[in-house]
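Hi all, posting the design record for the shared folder.

TITLE: backbone redesign
STEP: 1 of 1
STRUCTURE INPUT:
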């Protein structure tokens, strides 16, 4: 079909053969390999005419599709299931080896908890796609991968991907888009019920790049063009809406590009399954064999995009990743005929191109609008395949698609939010306690009040799921327990932070002493020091820092060094735990922060925070510190995909330590940084913590630096009794504080507690009463007359 209003381009074209090729494309004739190769030589006026044909062809297709003037994208989370791969592509920075992963403290595979945690965060931010990306069949190259799969009960990496897709779909409602590399027909059929679309880049049909030593795909069995073309065919036979495309600038010739585009068109002509064609430009990556290669020229890239439009036709979806081009090039790509930006994440990085961050969606919308198009969100599966869902989408996953769909445009309902199977909130992974009915929860709350020792792990886990009136009743009980144990006062400590990782290059011991004196002069009773001493300094620096603070201000309480910092000092000095801690206390440390752990569960630590101190080691050091008279705080970090049972188990483990040592001064329930959750979840955590720890750890702190201000009041009314530290910035090197700029003034704290008719009490680190002059030092001074 000829494009409306397009005839042979007017004016003089330098290359008659090129002019003829463009004329044939404009008339609607299939573009041959020879013509595509010719058209890729367009420059100058020829290039402008090529762009005219490509953009008008795109517009004609959008008009027929029913969305004229619209460029789409998919809001996604990027799930890099594993960085292992059996291939050895010379330009790839995504792939790693088991040894390198171990050195980085990274696991071989993302854990189910990590996967769901990321997916949940994305769903909360409005994402609708979960992009599963990984290396090809790593177990066929790496024994470590095979062992991991065997240990966890999976027959293959694709089996694990299938299970994780089902998990993400069930728990979050995000639509999986499978991009696990080469798949067989049977494997695609097995994945089909869990993913409305899949993807695999053809990249190139160049056999030379795969078969010749030194070329980018040499030594990569899955990059054999014949293997990848068969995947395209099998996907068509399996009725899979497939995303594919070419990678340009990796050493292929212009002829290779033309052949690759025509090969995709011919496959699509047989099956109608290629839902989008990506034209991706090579960007050199550091620490790869191709790191010194030049990036593809922007004009050459745009020409290739335009020819892709002509080869694939008006009804194809042509995509370019917006993060791989500079802002100035995006308008040229639109002119070249694209109609889709692909997946863009407001949460996760592009793990394949980590040096190229996604554009902010508002900014992408502005840039798209400047080219005359509206930016609209689509689903991971394109509209045409949704329209014929009986053919293309498995009935098992179609209800999830429908839940996120605008039924008129067949794009995304931008107001819809992906949700899991539970009617009110996604089910927590690993939750063994069954959902309790309202009467059962009320019975549990009554038992918690009357016979708290009768509640087990699953009972408390059920209480963590309380909502509505049940949550109010739970919070009321926790408030009562708090009132009857620690009274009505809300406490706060006057402190200042110091990041000890800055010692040496950033902070001298003389400046540490000045910081301590400045804090004391401002009214602080505590200096909180956290961070591992830099390795280039002597191990004795832990003792030296403590001694200088104590010498400068003997009355200032030194709350210093997390268990991870202490482990470093113990290792570097060669002392035993007790020897090091005893010497540290003699140098001036009074208490230690019990941070640097999420939950007391080694499996969870390996899954979500492998860089943290192993759980057993954390417990050893905390117990040893308590035994030499160094009390500590206790923490629980929640919101990293753990289950309600995991949270309860952690609290009970802390209680068991406290029964033995009596060394914990308080519990600080800390939401994970960057994780958004309902206000009710925070209330339930603080309330249940109060109930479990009653008679054990008396004080429950509200970590105000990690919470929205409006949450502070309901948490104080639901079992918490402490606001933590004021975090004075100070006048001497204030930027060296770990939470610089987050000061909570006494006046603000008092206004907060006054609003709930609770008195504010300034405390010492160990919840004692500071001298009166210390209290007065913080009070606002009257203005001079």
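Okay, here is what came back for every position:
SEQUENCE:
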């Amino acid at each position: 079909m000829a494009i409306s209003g397009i005839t042979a381009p007017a004016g003089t074209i330098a290359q008659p053969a090129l002019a003829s090729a463009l004329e044939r494309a404009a008339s609607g004739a299939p573009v041959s390999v020879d013509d595509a190769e010719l058209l890729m030589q367009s420059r100058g006026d020829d290039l402008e005419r090529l762009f005219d044909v490509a953009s008008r062809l795109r517009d004609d297709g959008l008009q027929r599709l029913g969305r004229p003037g619209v460029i789409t994208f998919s809001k996604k989370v990027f799930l890099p299931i594993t960085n292992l791969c059996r291939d050895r592509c010379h330009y790839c920075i995504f792939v790693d080896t088991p040894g390198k992963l171990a050195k980085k403290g990274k696991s071989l595979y993302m854990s189910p908890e990590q996967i769901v945690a990321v997916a949940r965060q994305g769903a909360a931010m409005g994402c609708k796609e979960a992009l599963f990306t990984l290396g090809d069949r790593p177990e066929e190259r790496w024994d470590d991968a095979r062992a991991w799969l065997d240990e966890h009960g999976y027959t293959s990496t694709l089996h694990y991907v299938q299970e994780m897709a089902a998990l993400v779909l069930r728990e979050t409602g995000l639509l999986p888009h499978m991009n696990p590399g080469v798949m067989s027909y049977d494997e695609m059929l097995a994945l089909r019920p869990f993913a409305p679309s899949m993807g695999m880049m053809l990249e190139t049909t160049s056999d030379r790049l795969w078969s010749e030593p030194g070329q980018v795909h040499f030594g990569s069995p899955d990059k054999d063009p014949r293997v990848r073309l068969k995947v395209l065919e099998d996907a068509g036979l399996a009725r899979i809406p497939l995303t594919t495309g070419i990678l340009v600038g990796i050493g292929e010739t212009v002829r290779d590009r033309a052949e690759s585009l025509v090969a995709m068109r011919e496959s699509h002509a047989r099956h109608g399954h290629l839902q989008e064609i990506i034209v991706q430009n090579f960007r050199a990556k550091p620490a790869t064999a191709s790191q010194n290669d030049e990036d593809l020229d922007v004009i050459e890239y745009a020409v290739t995009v335009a020819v892709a439009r002509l080869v694939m036709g008006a009804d194809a979806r042509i995509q370019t990743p917006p993060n791989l081009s500079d802002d100035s090039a995006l308008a040229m790509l639109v002119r070249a005929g694209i109609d889709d930006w692909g997946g863009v994440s407001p949460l996760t990085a592009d793990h394949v191109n980590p040096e190229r961050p996604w554009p902010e969606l508002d900014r992408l919308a502005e840039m798209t609008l400047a080219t005359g198009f509206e930016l609209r969100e689509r689903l991971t599966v394109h509209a045409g395949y949704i329209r014929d869902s009986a053919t293309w989408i498995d009935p098992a996953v179609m209800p999830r698609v429908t839940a996120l769909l605008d039924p008129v445009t067949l794009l995304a309902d931008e107001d819809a939010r992906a949700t899991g199977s539970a009617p009110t909130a996604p089910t927590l992974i690993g939750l063994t306690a069954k959902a309790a009915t309202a009467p059962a929860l009320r019975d549990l709350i009554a038992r918690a009040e009357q016979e708290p020792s009768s509640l087990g792990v699953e009972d408390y886990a059920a209480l963590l799921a309380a909502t509505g009136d049940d949550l109010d009743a739970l919070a009321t009980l926790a408030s009562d327990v708090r009132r009857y144990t620690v009274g009505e006062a809300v406490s706060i400590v006057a402190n200042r932070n110091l990041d000890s990782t800055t010692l040496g290059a950033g902070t001298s011991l003389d400046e540490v002493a000045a910081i301590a004196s400045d804090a004391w002069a401002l009214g602080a009773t505590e200096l909180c020091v956290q961070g591992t001493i830099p390795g280039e300094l002597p191990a004795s620096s832990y003792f030296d820092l403590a001694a200088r603070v104590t010498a400068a201000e003997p009355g200032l309480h030194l709350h210093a060094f997390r268990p991870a910092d202490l482990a470093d000092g113990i290792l570097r000095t060669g002392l035993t735990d007790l020897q090091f801690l005893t010497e540290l206390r003699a140098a001036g440390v009074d208490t230690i922060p019990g941070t640097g752990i999420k939950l007391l569960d080694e499996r969870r630590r390996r899954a979500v925070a492998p860089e943290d101190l192993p759980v057993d080691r954390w417990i050893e050091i905390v117990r040893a510190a308590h035994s030499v008279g160094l009390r500590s705080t206790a923490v629980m970090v929640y919101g990293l995909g753990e289950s309600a049972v995991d949270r309860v188990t952690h609290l009970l483990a802390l209680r068991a330590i406290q029964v033995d040592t009596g060394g914990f001064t308080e519990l600080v329930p800390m939401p994970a940084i960057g994780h958004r959750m309902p206000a009710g979840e925070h209330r339930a955590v603080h309330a249940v913590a109060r109930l479990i720890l009653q008679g054990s750890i008396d004080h429950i702190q509200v970590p105000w630096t990690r919470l929205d201000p409006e949450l502070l009041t309901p948490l104080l009314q639901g079992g918490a009794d402490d606001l933590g530290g004021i975090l004075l910035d100070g006048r001497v090197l204030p930027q060296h504080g770990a939470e610089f700029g987050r000061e909570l003034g006494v006046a603000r704290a008092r206004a907060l507690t006054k609003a709930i008719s609770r008195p504010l009490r300034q405390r010492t680190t160990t919840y004692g009463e500071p001298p009166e002059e210390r209290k007065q030092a913080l009070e606002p001074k009257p203005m001079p007359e």
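COMMENT: The CA atoms of residues 519 and 730 lie 6 Å apart.
Let me know if anyone wants the other runs.
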